[in-house]
Known about the structure:
Layout: E1 2-6, H1 11-22, E2 30-32, E3 38-48, E4 51-60, E5 64-68, E6 76-81, E7 84-89, E8 93-99, E9 106-111, E10 115-120, E11 125-133, H2 135-144, H3 146-161, H4 170-180, H5 190-210, H6 222-237, H7 246-252, H8 257-268, H9 272-290, H10 295-302, H11 307-318
Helix pairs in contact: 2-3, 4-5, 7-8, 9-10
Amino acid sequence: MYKYSFDFADIDNLRNFYRSQLDPGSSSDRIYFPKKIADGYLSYYKISPEVFLLINNYKANVDIKYIRRPIKDKDIILHFRKYALDHQFETNQIISKYSDSYTPGNMRCMDAQYGEQVLITKGAEVKSTMIVLKSTYTEPYFMKSSTMAEKLDHYIRCSHQHINKFYLSYKQSNLFDQIVTPKNSTVENYLYYIARGIRLLETFWKDVLKWETASNPFHINSAQVGNIYKVSNYLEENLQEPFVGVDQLAAMAHMSRTNFFNMFKEIHDQTPLEFFNNKKLESSYNLIFGDGLSIKEVMDTLNYSNSSKFKKAFFNKFDVFPDTNA
């Protein structure tokens, strides 16, 4: 087992620590693991002097134990992830262990004054991003609004108590994928990650502002969230087929029609049909401007029957006509 003990008091020193441990001599944004430890990398980006973006994207080839020591400053750690952890709580720290149970992605909001031990077992796939907010960043918010400070404290407490229930919204999930697993055709540079990290941080503050009770900020039944994401994944994988209808989708999710429809819209901010149609248009954009397919080929591939309606919908969404020769 490989053990790494660290804290978030100084992120620049943390970057240097991991570079010396894993990839000495490297000066790139990505710090690659030696093959004997893992396949993949860690990345560290400074959004501002008080805000940092950390990315984990690797498969462990051995057992790895991380010990994050508590610090005195009340820095805030936002941990967005698409892998599962089982948690136990002790007096001043969290004991977490990798789990192979399904999760569509969730977020933990932690106080850096609270430590954590994490065991990543051999074969585990870790995809996550952390945004570390130094106390010098958050204090101006609290000085302007005591209500904001109170809401954030409630948010952190509930995140500790219900650590597996803060599921990612659809926007957060999309931003997460763009940060942790960007498409090969995407230009991957410093600003690419900073821009998406800022947008991900904005979603967090909006969630805090919505906070009113000690329940999930999205008011979602966490036991059913996974089924919603399985349905939306099904829709994305079957864009070439006709839309099957809300009743059949609700049955797939083992939910009533009304409950499914309302929860789907709350998670994705779209109805199932809007989600399906938007995904088809996004796919058609990539096929036309990325792969160079003709309009006819795209319509055949994605089962569009009316060219004028397709072109109109395409223009309304992207403000450009689907014609590379125009």
